[in-house]
């Protein structure tokens, strides 16, 4: 039992620094046709750390839920830009 307790403590200490799920809203003004949201959603969904992506086509926005230990808003905007749709975080 003592060994198990030690292992649990070691696992907790060596775990990644307090991962937090965050949400970012991105303005994606280049989404102008019916296929654009599909492309943006696919690009964001392939990013490691992205948990959920919602596209608001009529508002030209993407709402992204992500693990902040794996990706940052800058990484999200890079993913959309690499797909041909530059974006900026909405504050």
Main attributes?
91 residues; alpha+beta; Alpha-Beta Plaits; four-stranded antiparallel beta sheet; 4 strands
Tell me what the CATH architecture is. Answer: 2-Layer Sandwich
The whole-number mean of residue pLDDT values reads: 87
The strand line-up of the biggest sheet is 2-3-1-4
How much helix is in the residues?
A: 25-40%
Q: In terms of per-residue confidence, which ranges show pLDDT below 50 for 5 or more consecutive residues?
A: none
What characteristic shape results from the CA principal axes? globular
> What's the main sheet like?
4 strands, antiparallel
Distance between the termini: 50 Å
Number of domains: 1
The overall strand count is 4
Structural class: alpha+beta
Portion of residues in beta strands equals 25-35%
Q: SSE string, helix = H, strand = E? A: HEHEEHE
CATH fold annotation:
Alpha-Beta Plaits
Can you identify the CATH class?
Alpha Beta
Count the DSSP helices. 3
* CA-based gyration radius: 17 Å
Word description of this protein:
By secondary structure, this protein is an alpha+beta fold. It has a single domain, classed as 2-Layer Sandwich (Alpha-Beta Plaits). The protein contains three helices and four strands; from the N terminus they run αβαββαβ. The chain has a four-stranded antiparallel β-sheet with strand order 2-3-1-4, with helices on one face. It is globular.
């Amino acid at each position: 039992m003592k060994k198990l307790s030690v292992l649990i403590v070691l696992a907790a200490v060596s775990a990644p620094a307090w991962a937090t799920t965050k949400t970012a809203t991105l303005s994606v003004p280049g989404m102008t046709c019916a296929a654009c949201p599909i492309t943006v959603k696919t690009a964001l969904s392939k990013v490691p750390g992205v948990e959920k992506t919602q596209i608001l086509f009529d508002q030209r926005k993407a709402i992204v839920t992500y693990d902040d230990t794996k990706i940052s808003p800058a990484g999200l905007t890079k993913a959309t830009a690499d797909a041909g749709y530059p974006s900026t975080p909405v504050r």
